[in-house]
Design brief:
With 318 residues, this protein is of the alpha/beta class. It has helices at residues 12-16, 22-34, 40-52, 65-76, 81-86, 106-115, 136-148, 160-164, 168-182, 199-211, 230-247, 262-276, 294-306, and strands at 54-57, 98-101, 122-126, 153-157, 186-190, 216-218, 252-254, 288-290. Helix content is 47%, strand content 10%. An eight-stranded parallel sheet has the order 7-6-5-4-3-2-1-8. Helix 7 (136-148) packs parallel to helix 9 (168-182). Bound molecules: glyceraldehyde-3-phosphate. It catalyses: 2-deoxy-D-ribose 5-phosphate = D-glyceraldehyde 3-phosphate + acetaldehyde.
Amino acid sequence: MADRNPGMDLDLEWVSGVRVNTQAVLKRAQQVQGRKVAKKEWQAAWLLKAATCIDLTTLSGDDTPSNVHRLCMKAMQPIRYDLLQSMGMHDKDITTAAVCVYPSRVADAVKSLKAANSCIPVASVATGFPAGQTPLKTRLEEVRMAVEDGATEIDIVINRTLALTGQWAGLYEEIRQFREACGDAHMKTILAVGELGTFTNVYKASLVSMMAGSDFIKTSTGKESVNATYPVAIVMVRAIRDYYRKTDHKVGFKPAGGIRTAQEALVWLVLMKVELGDQWLTPHLFRLGASSLLGDIERQIYHYVTGRYPAYHELPMA
Ligand SMILES: O=C[C@H](O)COP(=O)(O)O
């Protein structure tokens, strides 16, 4: 990954001065959704790009070493080899950006990828995911254990209680401690936007997370009733842009939760391009957190290559 965001001292004046114009955000989100997306070979290229930005995720109570193994194999070969060959992309080392699992499954993922000689990063959710309602000591220990087991990316959840009660200094302090516990592992900070109430809170939580040294800010756990939406993304990427202008540090963005279709993936790429520019269109600064998006991307690429949609058995790993 690129240089990390070191964070900065908490600037409470900046945080408390934040105002978000809701109407302007909604309008911009509509404009982004209404933009024409690429077609034909350009669309296929964008879909491949989207595949390389996916944190391929399984976060289920019934996860086992074998389904984690299967996830890892899919991450290594996200699109069927013959389809890539038809596109002349079979030798481009196309993999997903990472696999993302619960802390207890990190060792399984690391083992599977290592055995297959792959260096795809293993990301783990931590800090009492998804609610974050466990004692700080436990949350910190969870981060350390996931790192010890080989996770090189940690997706922490913020303490919504602190955000909702305006305890920004407390939130900053906790995230700082998570960052320290992560060590060299890159930290993605999940805001759980569906539980933050207002756009202003989302912007403030984004800022505080970046000030505390997050490498990425991420919308959602996928477990809230509202997850990644385009308006909320506009708020977060504007915070990223403002933070970059002020500090010269680029923080990544990860929409996650409920992203299921290739069409949505294309809109997310457009949003990043028009709001933050091409430099954010790489896995270093953009991830799509998703458990069931890749299947549709592969299906659309199949359609592009063959001119028809596949039968279920034709993409058995999707
Ligand atoms: O971080 C990733 C999300 O948990 C995935 O959510 P999803 O299962 O709705 O795709």
